[in-house]
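Worked Example 4.2. Consider the chain below.
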Amino acid sequence: MKIQPGVGYTFDSSAKGFTFDTSEQFPSRDGGNGTTHPLKIINVSINAGGNVIYQVQSGIINNIVPLLDDYISSTTVLLDRVTAGVADPPTAELTSVNYDATTLTSYIALRSGPDATTNDFPSSDVTSARYPLVIGGNDPAVADTDTAGYIFLGTITVDNVTTPTTFTVSQNVTGSLWADRLKLGTTTAVYYYARI
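Applying the procedure from the previous section yields the following structure tokens:
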């Protein structure tokens, strides 16, 4: 009897017998567990100061890696930061002002705007305030402007905004993004996003 490998399995035969291997033949890009993806809110916890901290999995918007406010260094840092050859992603901190007082939710958004000189979108000038930046805010309906468009990556909801003890994370975006900005005449710019 001659058995050949097929869809969803491989076959091995020797003098000791034969085996079928039905494990994943081509592991997925996310490591096979399906739990990680670009721009995912990760490593959420409560720090020693009693505030929620979080990181965002490295990803891109229009091939640009966004920044995140790193509360440890008090600077904005690229999501794909590497220190001494080792991944060292920044960690953001949410304080009571970052939550909606009614819903106890912080809305984690990716803000980006056009370059002030060239009007290219999004700005690729990492020193510009229009460069893509992940921020936590208290407004679920923050309005787009001519200089900034927002897309909500997800939310972090707590039991108490001043002294949180539990939190819930919800994810809206599940991959890197491609964005377009449309500005006509005097109307406010409109931003469109697609997952890539």
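The two ends are 46 Å apart (CA to CA). Residues 33-195 form one domain. Compare this with Example 4.1 before moving on.
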